[in-house]
Design brief:
Length: 209
């Protein structure tokens, strides 16, 4: 009975990966078109007029490291096996550290708030001016989205939309440029896929999805 269950789990992972690539690729394409049409600076000036500024705080926290504690609690309560814990820990580490490595390589990369005068500032988070590339929140948001989609594929679209919204929130709150967010998405999705592909069912082979 284990083999059909494992086949189903594998099929769900492939389908979740494909859907993630579609959703994030389409989102990146839209951002690229907006950037080409308006330009980086004008895009932020225009987004400053949107009535969504405060709402974006709720999305941006989903890409915060503290949100990992909620997932850890969920993994503990649902009594997941060691393989899933390993997938989460390795993927989370990659999605967290790789953006920080990028910030060390390009420490002078200026954020929108350092370049454009008159933008709104968040009342909840400290302003940031440099180490813009890539977006760590976008990376973690994408990682969380795909990791959860692998576990609960029936909610894949919801998770992926929330993952995209984390990145968009970083633009609307003026912490990152579009290229920062797209790079973060690529890192987060890559971290989730790599950890799942190489470590899932490493210790136990019980077909858990």
């Amino acid at each position: 009975m284990a083999k059909p269950n494992n086949d189903l789990a594998s099929g769900n992972r492939v389908l979740s990966t494909q859907r993630a690539l579609i959703v994030f690729s389409l989102s990146a394409a839209v951002l690229t078109l907006l950037r080409l049409h308006f330009g980086d600076v004008q895009l932020h000036i225009l987004s400053d007029r949107l009535p969504w500024f405060e709402l974006m705080h709720g999305f941006t926290v989903l890409g915060d490291g503290a949100f990992a504690l909620i997932i850890v609690l969920w993994l503990f309560l649902t009594k997941n096996n060691r393989s899933i814990w390993l997938v989460f820990l390795v993927g989370f580490t990659l999605a967290s550290l790789l953006p920080q490595l990028g910030k060390l390589i390009w420490p002078e990369a200026a954020r929108p708030q350092a370049v454009i005068e008159g933008l709104r500032f968040s009342k909840l988070f400290d302003p940031a001016y440099y180490r813009s590339f890539p977006s760590g929140h976008s990376s973690l948001g994408a990682f969380f989205a795909l990791f959860l989609a692998y576990r609960k594929p029936q909610w894949v679209w919801l998770y992926l939309i929330f993952g995209v919204m984390v990145g968009l929130s970083r633009i609307i709150l003026h912490y990152h440029w579009t290229q920062d967010v797209m790079a973060g998405w690529a890192i987060g999705l890559g971290a989730a896929w790599f950890a799942e592909r190489t470590l899932s069912n490493k210790f136990e082979n019980n077909g858990t999805t």
